[in-house]
Fold this sequence. Notes:
single chain; alpha/beta; eleven-stranded mixed beta sheet; 15 helices; 15 strands; 18% strand; globular; disordered C terminus
Amino acid sequence: MDNHDYRFKPYTRNSIKSAPQWKLLTPSQQESVLAVSRVLPFRVNAYVLDELIDWSNIPDDPIFRLTFPHREMLRTEEYELLCNIESGRSAGSEGELIKRIRMNMNPHPAGQLTHNVPYLYGQPIKGLQHKYRETVLFFPSAGQTCHAYCTFCFRWPQFVGMNELKFDAKDARALVDYLKVHKEVTDVLITGGDPMIMNARSLAGYIEPLLSADLSHIQNIRIGTKSVAYWPQRFVSDPDADDVMRLFEKVVASGKNLAVMGHYNHPAELRPAIAQQAVRNIIATGATVRMQAPLIRHINEDPAGWAELWTAGVKLGATPYYMFVERDTGPRSYFEVPLVKAYEVFQQAYQQVSGLARTVRGPSMSAHPGKVVIDGIVKLAGEKVFALQFLQARNPNWVRRPFYARFDPHATWLDQLRPAFGESRFFFEQEAHAEVSSIISSSAWDDSTISSTSNSGVDKRASVS
């Protein structure tokens, strides 16, 4: 089948048995998919099944691991309990077990639920996050699913029915009201889920209000999407693909930059002709395409693969943007790699590409205080250390301020690192602690004031609306 001719059809836990490829899995692999997908989201489509997965290389094919659940994603005892319930060998409550497993997976890392939700006129705004001064994240309710789910995705709670932890907004009115007040915001990132799951009319309903003259301070509109890899037909052959392209042109004609933040985890996702055509079509509208993804064990640990991906993207006109460190959520023990290996993979990949692809930054941790990049592993004052800095931070004064952590060959995340040179705390922890102490001791502290994300190092109570 020509990969332009697909009509979108998702396969989920309830329908995957009807896919032709299901019979290619062993009984043990089938059991794993059905058991683990009770806890973690599972969704795939015919394009991914037919065009991206090499079924002669199962289970080691990277796109297979990227989309199909595996038993190692759960603890052995958790997996066995799920299998016992499904087979009727246990009378336990499946719902309680699933909830317990999910809550043990750190469903909202980096303070998303408690620290990033902004307030306006004393009320929290549903479907928004405002962590960094310049950028607001917007979660349209119509975009809270994807053409296919990544097994590592840190937004997995959006897809599994954990409504108390879900971010979504029915329309753009609250977003526009918030932006009219917050003139410091220059960028709006429309994310999900995947906004490109929406039809062109729904997408326009969220984007066009941002083109208002009242929001002239908004310079950049970003769309975070995996569709460029999992469903490139969205930009080429879908019934309303032309309407999407006209919408992109309208944004550019308004004088704003439209950036499609394309999530590419492996070069196989950019090899099909239609995936390359999707990038060309987007760029032809005047929009830009930026490429980003985390480094994930079992999927993209090969530096040559990253070099191929970045080089292919540059050839098409896309800009390599970020290599992330896998976040501390979901089945992290299955996907995480030590920070030292992440740095080695990034360095080795970086060495293989020309200057045009060296726009990429990483490996970067999107942690609670901000985006922390590992700049190097060096020896200073007789001590082996990680050289670190913030690329973005809750407190803008922290950005590009170098700091150092003791070398730890096993650390996989920022909170596992300890300050170098005998310090008890990192500088941002010291400043945050001092600010909290100052606020608590101040007579200005008032429980009736607005609790809000303050774009500083702590979640303090301040009227920012």
